[in-house]
């Protein structure tokens, strides 16, 4: 009996070791990106964009990959985060972190309200209603010219240097420094998401994904837990949107529409939506590809469409899904 | 004042008619196969372009019939080779697939026909107004309404009285039982899909006569179609019909009083329905959840 | 057990109508604490509908359900689970792509009031693991704890499902055809588990069963349903001798 227990412990610790190694590798790559990205023909802001969209995709994946709920309107909250941060910087504050928090809160609160409207439904219905949400905000952003800047988007603000005591961190002018600022935010978000997914609450989400009826008969109030997952997801997506607005010094109304939602979804699916880091990988591939293609031709959307089609038909579990065994993914974080 | 009201109501009905035509096609495909066809708007545009291409050879009336059929056949091919593989899977996949197809089709249309609007000529006599007092009743608009009414009426008659139609309706409720009864489910789904696409193609031909042809001309109808389905109740075709007419009319009437809000009104209606009766006006409890 | 006369579960004149179809008609049953009650009857007798009402899947059209003295007729599934009612299904409802340990863990965490906790302390994790080990030991699944439940044998899957139910610290176990579709060996395994839980650990069990050997081996009392009504109720000996029961079954096997 004891021999068996220690064998299990060794296997578990070996698994833990590989997980630590993988985590370390990922963070190493992220930490050093501004240095090697230029050598690969890229530029720092590209890396920042990967982080931001990766965060959005990972946040979305809280719902899709871990709870099994498909929302197709996440762009709504991405956009809310962007506009929230933009408004904050334009009218209320000089502090970039505060602006990010403002955008995050806006997306989170509205997500909580709208989420309550839809959690009783699931599947196709849920997807369709969330699509409509995104479009509503898109429409508001475009029409409410005076406040939101309409078609042109919200402009006239820019991220401000950070004043940390005696030091001034010029994230405004230095792309590298902004990258690290975003990385810090990303790190906070990723760590929080990771902790949540490994917690008992996270386990209930996975249970809901795996077998909703059994989860209900275990005493898990399904609608409440889905709503909570939805809110958390919106909070982190909004954070990504806020960081995006600060990256571009511009809040784009197209951030709201279903093209953006589709982009977030495909990044998660492309990278592997049953794994924690998959969406980040998907975002990296997508952003780089899009950057490359759009520099060559005006008509590059078909290539994006082709990615959608190929992933769906041939790589439904995404790139990381090719390597992962089914049950293992539940613990990858 | 009365004339202006009539004008707007008529406008609303025309808009509603388009919404209905598009939404019914979407609804058919959604109900039987659980597929959210994001490419529906591009099928509309393709329908318009195909009509434009064949019209010089076979004339307007033939194009009206031929183009939707061609598009439906194309849809059939797509169903057979791509969409069919996804039926057993999460609805996510078919949504993503059609989403991607929409991108591909749009760029394809852009490269073949260009981004600029192409004019689609309709027979001369249709363009004239039918009366001076009701100047907005151009022959073409009345014609469009007539075609939509015929198409929608035909659809409902088909679903009610033909064998295939009954099977489709039964399949929407319980596909397993239908298949156990010996019906060829694959063929049924394929036909149903093609039928939905046919309606999209038809919308495209009609729209082409009214607006100029552009690759993204279907985009503006996608969201209202979704809203029509949600408002009417997911899973209910009569509901979709009602929903489409309702939001079309609402759009027309609101335009009269507050033009800027006319686009928003469909979302307001959707929000009200979601709050007061989430299953939609004619939807059933438990459909599509 | 508690020695009083208060029953653990009382079904009072319960009926269920589906439109014009009467699935259950005026059935009254009383299950004592610590008892193992088998519910049997020919196909279509309404047994699963009966169970569905007890567990809260849908409400009865008429009648009341009383659990340990409390009227629970209007409560939801989740509320009943929280009050100590755990259920297994005819077609095993488990999390097939998770390990046995992970399957049981969720039940333990929910029962421990941790379902909304987004953070756990080391002490809590240790407690949870200890509880999981205890349940795995009870259901003899210890050696398979790291295997995916979906890959286990039918009998082991059922044991895992029962383990999940046990994790909820139930006062009442509702088992819907626990040996459905099983061969000799697996039936023996599952029946043995149920017997242990009942005899050695005092669980109150209500089970639907078709396998008469299991029923007569395990049950303290048997309730017979036929076409939605209560046909007979009594000890195994009484039921075996009951002519009406025999007629119902013989008639069904034609």
Description:
The complex is a heterotrimer of chains A (333), B (289) and C (254). Chain A has 333 residues and is mainly alpha-helical. Chain A is built from 14 helices and 2 strands; from the N terminus they run ααααααββαααααααα. In chain A, a hairpin with a 2-residue loop joins strand 1 (162-164) and strand 2 (167-169). In chain A, helix 4 packs antiparallel against helix 10 (222-248) and helix 7 (175-198) crosses helix 8. The two termini of chain A are 31 Å apart. By secondary structure, chain B is mostly helical. The model of chain B has no long low-confidence stretch (mean pLDDT 85). Helix content of chain C is 38%, strand content 24%. Chains in contact: A-B, A-C. The A-B interface holds A 64, 70, 72, 117-118, 120-125, 127-129, 131-132, 135-136, 139-140, 143, 262, 265-266, 269, 299, 301-302, 304-309, 311-313, 316 and B 30, 34, 36, 38, 82, 85-86, 89-97, 99-108, 110-111, 223, 226-227, 229-230, 234, 260, 263-264, 267, 270-271, 274-275, 278, 287-289.
Descriptive tags:
heterotrimer; A: 333 residues; mainly alpha; two-stranded antiparallel ribbon; 73% helix; disordered C terminus; C: 254 residues; alpha/beta; globular
Mean residue pLDDT of chain B: 85
What is the count of DSSP helices of chain B, taking H or I runs of 4+ residues?
11
Averaged pLDDT of chain C? 89
How many beta strands in the DSSP annotation of chain B? 0
% residues in beta strands of chain C: 15-25%
Q: How much beta of chain B, percentage-wise?
A: under 5%
Helicity level of chain C, as a percent range? 25-40%
Low-confidence stretches of chain B: none
Order of helices and strands of chain C: EEEHEEHEHHHEHEHEEHH
Structural class of chain C: alpha/beta
């Amino acid at each position: 009996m004891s021999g068996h227990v220690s064998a299990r412990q060794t296997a578990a610790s070996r698994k833990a070791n590989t997980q630590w190694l993988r985590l370390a590798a990922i963070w190493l790559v992220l930490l050093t990106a501004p240095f090697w990205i230029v050598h690969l023909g890229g530029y720092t802001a590209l890396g920042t964009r990967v982080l931001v969209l990766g965060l959005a995709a990972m946040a979305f994946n809280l719902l899709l990959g871990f709870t099994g709920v498909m929302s197709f309107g996440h762009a709504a909250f991405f956009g809310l985060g962007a506009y929230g941060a933009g408004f904050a910087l334009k009218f209320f504050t000089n502090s970039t972190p505060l602006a990010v928090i403002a955008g995050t809160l806006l997306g989170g609160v509205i997500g909580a309200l709208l989420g309550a409207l839809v959690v009783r439904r699931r599947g196709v219905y849920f997807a369709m209603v969330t699509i409509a949400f995104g479009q509503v905000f898109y429409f508001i952003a475009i029409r409410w010219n005076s406040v939101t800047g309409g078609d042109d988007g919200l402009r006239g603000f820019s991220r401000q240097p950070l004043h940390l005591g005696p030091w001034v961190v010029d994230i405004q002018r230095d792309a590298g420094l902004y990258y690290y600022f975003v990385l810090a935010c990303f790190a906070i978000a990723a760590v929080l998401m990771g902790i949540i997914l490994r917690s008992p609450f996270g386990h209930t989400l996975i249970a809901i994904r795996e077998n909703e009826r059994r989860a209900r008969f275990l005493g898990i109030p399904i609608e409440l837990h889905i709503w909570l997952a939805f809110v958390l997801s919106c909070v982190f997506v909004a954070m990504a949107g806020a960081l995006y607005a600060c990256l571009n010094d511009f809040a784009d109304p197209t951030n709201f529409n279903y093209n953006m939602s589709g982009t977030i979804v495909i990044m998660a699916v492309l990278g592997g939506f049953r794994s924690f880091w998959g969406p980040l990988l998907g975002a990296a591939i997508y952003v780089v590809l899009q950057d490359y293609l759009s520099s060559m031709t005006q008509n590059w959307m078909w290539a994006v469409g082709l990615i959608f089609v190929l992933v769906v038909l041939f790589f439904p579990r995404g790139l990381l899904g090719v390597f992962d065994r089914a049950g293992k993914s539940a613990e990858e974080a | 004042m009365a004339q202006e009201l009539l004008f707007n109501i008529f406008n609303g009905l025309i808009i509603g008619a388009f919404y209905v035509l598009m939404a019914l096609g979407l609804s058919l495909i959604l109900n039987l196969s659980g597929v959210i066809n994001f490419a529906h708007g591009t099928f509309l545009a393709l329908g318009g372009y195909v009509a434009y291409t064949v019209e010089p050879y076979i004339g307007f009336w033939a194009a009206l019939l031929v183009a939707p059929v061609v598009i439906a056949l194309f849809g059939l091919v797509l169903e057979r080779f791509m969409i069919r593989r996804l039926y057993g899977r999460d609805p996510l996949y078919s949504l993503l697939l059609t989403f991607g197809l929409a991108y591909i089709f749009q760029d394809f249309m852009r490269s073949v026909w260009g981004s600029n609007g192409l004019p689609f000529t309709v027979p001369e006599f249709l363009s004239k107004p039918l009366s001076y007092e009701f100047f907005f009743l151009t022959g073409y608009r009345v014609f469009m309404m007539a075609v939509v009414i015929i198409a929608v009426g035909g659809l409902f008659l088909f679903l009610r009285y033909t064998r295939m139609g009954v099977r489709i309706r039964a399949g929407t409720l319980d596909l397993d039982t239908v298949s156990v009864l010996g019906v060829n489910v694959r063929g049924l789904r394929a036909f149903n899909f093609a039928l939905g696409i046919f309606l999209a193609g038809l919308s495209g031909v009609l729209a082409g006569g009214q607006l100029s042809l552009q690759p993204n001309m279907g985009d503006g109808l996608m969201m209202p179609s979704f809203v029509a389905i949600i408002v009417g109740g997911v899973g209910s075709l009569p509901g979709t019909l009602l929903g489409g007419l309702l939001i079309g009319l609402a759009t027309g009437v609101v335009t009269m009083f507050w033009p800027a809000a006319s686009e928003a009104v469909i979302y307001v209606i959707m929000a009200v329905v979601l709050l007061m009766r989430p299953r939609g006006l004619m939807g059933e409890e438990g459909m599509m959840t | 057990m508690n020695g009083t006369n208060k029953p653990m579960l009382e079904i009072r004149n319960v009926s269920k109508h589906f439109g014009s179809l009467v699935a259950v008609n005026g059935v009254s049953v009383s299950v004592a604490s610590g008892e193992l009650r088998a519910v049997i009857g020919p196909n279509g007798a309404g047994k699963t509908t009966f169970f569905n009402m007890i567990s809260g899947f849908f409400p009865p059209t008429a009648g009341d359900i009383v659990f340990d003295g409390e009227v629970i007729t209007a409560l939801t599934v989740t509320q009943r689970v929280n009050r100590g009612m755990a259920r297994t299904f005819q077609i095993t409802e488990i999390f097939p792509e998770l390990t046995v340990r992970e399957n049981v863990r969720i039940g333990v965490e929910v029962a421990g009031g941790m379902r909304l906790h987004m953070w756990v302390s080391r002490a809590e994790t240790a407690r949870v693991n200890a509880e999981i080990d205890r349940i795995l030991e009870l259901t003899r699944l210890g050696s398979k704890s790291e295997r995916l439940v979906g890959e286990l044998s039918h009998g082991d899957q059922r044991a895992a499902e029962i383990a999940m139910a046990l994790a909820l610290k139930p006062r009442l176990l509702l088992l819907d055809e626990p040996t459905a579709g099983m061969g000799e060996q697996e039936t023996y395994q599952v029946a043995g588990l149920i017997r242990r839980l009942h005899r050695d650990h005092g669980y109150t069990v209500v089970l639907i069963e078709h396998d008469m050997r299991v029923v007569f081996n395990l049950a303290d009392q048997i309730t017979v349903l036929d076409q939605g009504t209560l046909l007979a109720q009594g000890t195994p000996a009484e039921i075996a001798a009951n002519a009406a029961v025999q007629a119902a079954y013989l008639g069904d096997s034609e």
